[in-house]
Amino acid sequence: MVATTAEGTAASPSRPSQPAQPAQPAQPSQASEPSEKAEKAETPRAPAQGRTRRTRRRRRIKIALAGTVLTLAAAAGGGYLWLDATSDVHDVGQADCAAVTPAVVATPAGRAGAEDHAAVCGRLRELTGAWARGDATAFGAQFTQDATCTTYVGTHYRGRRDIAEAHRALFDGFLKDTRLADSFLDIRFYGPDTAVVTTRGDTYTGSPKKPADLSKTQTYTLVRQSGHDWRIAAFHNTQRQRVMERISFLLSPDTKPEAEK
């Protein structure tokens, strides 16, 4: 018998429900396979590319630094050459000691005369001659027994014997066959028995150096021994630093000596 609904309509007989089909797994798209392979292939190269960029960056920095250093070095070298080329002195003195007019200061003991001027110049001429001959004994004899001698490197000798023996070693060593060049800046007498002589000087071989090229400033203090016998009681030698002197005059012009203005 067919069952009816409340409205009187016949209801169709119920059918058993169909079991649900299991979901099929999604198949990978063939189109995505090449891109995934490409990504996998590119992944190992990324660190290498980073290293390459860093290497190039470091190389550019090194090149820039090297260029800066070379530029600064060239500027410094050019500046040094300019300073050296413009550091000549104006007060070069006179090559002949006798041509210098001495300043004579009288004291209660008296004053020096023309013959004393000649004797002082003669003593310094003997000193130069002994050096040219490489005669250390004669060189030392131009000094007093208790004389002092200070070299431009700061070595300080005491006494005639000390001075002579040191110069004996020098004349047999790196000063062998050299000569002395002098240019006299001034001569001052204080009373009858003391003289101070300031020179520009240097050693040389071959042709004598020009006064402007002499690299040392020297001070001799001479005393009368007896009569007109004058000897060197003290000698002080100073190396002139051309470039440093020029820099000091540029930075502080008031330090320039009157003779150089």
Automatic annotation (TrEMBL):
Does this entry carry the keyword Membrane?
Answer: yes
Biased composition, class Low complexity, residue ranges: 10-33
Annotated spans, Disordered: 1-59
Q: Is Membrane set as a keyword in this record?
A: yes
Compositionally biased spans, kind Basic and acidic residues: 34-43
Chain segments annotated as transmembrane: 63-83
Keywords assigned by UniProt, alphabetized: Membrane, Transmembrane, Transmembrane helix
Gene3D superfamilies cross-referenced by the UniProt entry: 3.10.450.50
> What InterPro entries does the record tag this protein with?
DUF4440, NTF2-like_dom_sf, Steroid_delta5-4_isomerase
Q: Which Pfam families match?
A: DUF4440
Q: Where is the DUF4440 domain?
A: 125-232
NCBIfam families according to UniProt: SgcJ/EcaC family oxidoreductase
What is this protein's record name?
SgcJ/EcaC family oxidoreductase
Q: Which organism is it from?
A: Streptomyces thermocoprophilus
